[in-house]
Amino acid sequence: MDKLIIEGGAPLKGTVEVSGSKNSLLPILAATLLTRDKCVIKNAPDLRDTVSMLRLLRYLGSNYEFKDHRIVIKPNGSSEIEAPYKLVSTMRASFCVLGPLLARYGRAKVSLPGGCIIGVRPVDLHLKGLAKLGAKITIREGYAHAETKHLKGGHIYLGGPFGSSVLATGNVMMAAALARGTTIIESAACEPEVVDLARFLIKMGARIKGEGSPCIEITGVKELHGAEYEVIPDRIEAATLVMAAAITRGEVMVRGARAEHMTAVLEKLKDVGVNLKISKEGILVKKTARKFKPFDIVTLPYPGFPTDAQAQFMTLMSITEGISVITEKIYPDRFMHVAELNRMGAQIKREGPYAVVHGIKQLSAAPVMASDLRASAGLVLAGLVARGKTEVHRIYHLDRGYERLDFKLQRLGARIERARE
């Protein structure tokens, strides 16, 4: 197991490239189960989660080659329809194979993904949507068993207690692509990653309209063919890199970042006092000597402020003098990083789905423990500005969703190194 050792105080300078989107790639890989043909996926990030999904697809009968951010994948003719707990439990996005397996083979047995540190994340919307398409679903011994003679289009409402679900929208959309008739998904997730999956399916021959809106229409086709597709840049990694430049008072070009996918984040940074320049090349964070202004954020489904950037913004709040407030409306329990930031001198008090942050001038280095993927990123940002050397432990969380983040930060001038525990 590795850890990161970070000596704070170095302003970041230079240019950094954004990797492909993890949250786009994983459902897109699941979608390759819908065809007998070869698919080529470009701009694939080299992550632990990517490897985990590819292992699952190999178990389900796909051969692949992954090299230089390019994945060539093709089913080998077998028809394995069970996704076992050992593989699904490592990553919640693995549950997205349920829809494609059901649509392709008429039956599937997929392990329920289990609990999650950031709070309860049920798969009931996935099951509800697939049942509306005509699947008979039962839960036995920790597995979702689904079967159907053939899927039929239907009118499906996918709203949940905390809004729409990206993975459920993707799972139902993939199944509907091979269903008979037309499917309407109401309260569909609008995230760019859902649009990316839809566009990949369209390249495979699917008939989809309305992607990126709360109402998606899918007209089923008899079969899908192979396709070549390039995954969009990762908007959360881009936001994290922009934040790293801003919080260290540096000047960095985040090349490849798509501002149109990051409106809520960028508008909030401008309100805080971060100097940004948007171009076709990416996002330039300019050096600023101004004090940051205290601010509030409320996490919401896209195009609202993303919950996946909440921990990083909490770190910025920690060194922004005044009182700032976070309201977490997506995962109300997603505050595991509060205790670790407080170990570094932050003054944060959690009250239910709210976190009240009393900003201080500077954080102090301390050994801290990463609890999840985005909390890891928030603690790395804290280490970049803290006085002294910070050790961030359990960074396998970080490696699930950030491709060589320590190396990218090193090239920008950060004093950061990876070491064995």
Terminal Cα span: 6 Å
Count of individual domains: 2
Q: Quick one: CATH class of the largest domain?
A: Alpha Beta
CATH topology of the largest domain: UDP-n-acetylglucosamine1-carboxyvinyl-transferase, Chain
Helical fraction: 25-40%
Query: Assembly state here?
Result: single chain
Low-confidence stretches: none
- Number of DSSP helices? 14
CATH architecture type of the largest domain: Alpha-beta prism
* Major sheet description: 4 strands, mixed
Spatial order of the strands forming the largest sheet: 22-23-1-24
Mean pLDDT: 95
Would you tell me the structural class of the helices and strands? alpha/beta
Strand segment count: 24
**Shape by Cα distribution:** elongated
Task: Quote the beta fraction.
Answer: 25-35%
- What is Rg? 21 Å
The H-level CATH homologous superfamily of the largest domain, spelled out, is Enolpyruvate transferase domain
What order do the helices and strands come in, and which of them pair?
Elements: E1 2-7, E2 13-17, H1 22-31, E3 39-42, H2 48-59, E4 62-67, E5 70-75, E6 82-83, H3 85-88, H4 98-105, E7 107-111, H5 124-132, E8 136-140, E9 143-147, E10 155-157, H6 166-176, E11 182-186, H7 192-203, E12 207-209, E13 215-219, E14 228-230, H8 235-247, E15 251-255, H9 263-272, E16 275-278, E17 282-286, E18 296-299, H10 310-318, E19 322-328, H11 337-343, E20 347-351, E21 354-359, E22 367-369, H12 373-385, E23 389-393, H13 396-401, H14 405-411, E24 415-420
Parallel strand pairs: 2-15, 3-14, 6-7, 10-11, 18-19, 22-23
Antiparallel strand pairs: 1-23, 1-24, 3-5, 4-5, 7-9, 8-9, 11-13, 12-13, 15-17, 16-17, 19-21, 20-21
Helix pairs in contact: 1-2, 1-7, 4-6, 5-6, 6-7, 8-12, 10-12
